[in-house]
Amino acid sequence: xxVSGNLINLFDRTIRFGHLTIExxxxxxxxxxxxxxxxxxYLLPGFVDAHVHIESSMLTPAQFxxxxxVHGTVATVSDPHEIGNVLGIKGVEYMIADGKRVPFxxxxxxxxxxxxxxxxxxxATISVQxxxxxxxxxxxxxxxxxxxxxGVLHQDADVMAKIALAKAFNKPVDxxxxxxxxxxxxxYMDAGIETDHECxxxxxxxxxxxxxxxxxxxxxxxxxxxxxLIPLLAxxxxxxxxxxxxxxxxxLIVGHINxxxxxxxxxxxxxxxxxxxxxxNPVLHYRLPVGLLREGDPADFxxxxxxxxxxxxxxxxxxxxxAENGVSKLPDLRSEHVNQFNCTAKTPTDFAVPAENAGVxxxxxxxxxxxxxxxxxxxxxxxxxxxxSDPARDVLKITVVNRYQDAPPAVAFIKNFGLQxxxxxxxxxxxxxxxxxxxxxxxxxxMAVNSIIAAKGGVGAVSADAxxxxxxPIAGLMTDVDGYEVASRYTVIDQxxxxxxxxxxxxxxxTLSFMALLVIPYLKLSDKGLFDGGRFAFVPVINxxx
Length: 546
Hints:
This protein has 16 helices and 31 strands. A hairpin with a 7-residue loop joins strand 13 and strand 14. The protein is about 25% helix and about 30% strand. It folds into two domains: about 45-290, TIM Barrel (Alpha-Beta Barrel); about 350-545, no CATH class. The protein is an alpha+beta fold and about 550 residues long. The strands form six sheets. Strands 18, 19, 22, 23, 24, 25, 26, 27 and 31 form a nine-stranded mixed sheet that branches. Strands 3-2-1-4-13-14-15-16 form an eight-stranded mixed sheet, with no helix packed on it. Strands 5-6-7-8-9 form a five-stranded parallel sheet.
């Protein structure tokens, strides 16, 4: 096969017209015939998402790939710790097997923190021995994000053993250290950790990149750090990568890493620096089997109309056209349904909060576009001896319900969801993936939770006269339904939450899913109670000392 166009060489930083000769899925020969020819197509290496949890798209790997290739993505560096928290090592093996069914290049990691903390109930544990087994597999390319940065700093035995195993297998170690700066950041890096996708300020990113860390600029459905971190690219082009971390299906049908490329160019960043972050750096750092437009490489590349619009005309993987003119050519595949969901229906009284000795209450302040939260101290609304939601002040009940066994729900309060009625709920609740819900009254809260229990996983929203649910029968995290249909159904629920229930968040379900993530400060809720990330300890909802 012969393909002609303007060839973008990311190593020499040149653009010259020429031809690719492709044989048996590889670039057999590159022939340059002259200078760039404006008006002709441009050929460049495909985009790589340098850190993503496929499960957060609510799609199986095969369905995720169908949507991603349309945007020029040919590979992902994928941490399967979401399904790992539900099903353990069998969940990781499930993701690998499903990904092999399509010609897309998934690089899966060995989850390093399952469960993420001892302060929550997960469905499984991935032990040091399990990590060793995973790292020994050729499909596992790295040790996935080491979220337990306190464990690194205090040299926890299991944490250090997992890092040592990655070094022994000569595989990279991914980081996760939001807000860590200075000497502590240096100690974290000295343990062998090489990346961080959690920087949320320029100053934090600069501190870490100057110390030699690779910084991943994240722009997902919930956490959006592009604007803060993109200035780093000009000075550290060899240390920057692009990632989404978590991408809901409605966002994935719109765009992927290609969106960050367009935004970076519009920001005034230099073309080759941008493409280095989007295409080259992840392949080199993770040693991915992804072609970079060199003779002998796999024939992985994308075809653009021009370098202004950056519209993807064609995506090619191993010499096979997998997307063309906005249409995916990957098959619509069904997958095995695996799950662990063992709790039974709740009653409204399960969510009651007695107002005994009520002073002020600790309230989680959710921040739109961020995973971090703040701690607020708020006067409670009390009715009939109970502390209740207060939609007028946007102080609503939040609950986390153990989905692996029957247990009393944990209940607290949260601000900034903006709901004026009804409730929303989800079994996507990082990292243990219990049921999480926010509601304006106990009846709605209970109804939303029970809809998730009945479906054995999903995302849903209810009001007095309507109920919507998108079932997620695979680990309570994913579905194998056609990705475009899932995106459409999810959009209906999302719009219902915003237009009917009046949520003010850009991505209410994605924000909801991180309100149980204890390793991201400051105040979060697990199935065991309200958790202060600063103290790394539980705190009562009622602060009677104030």
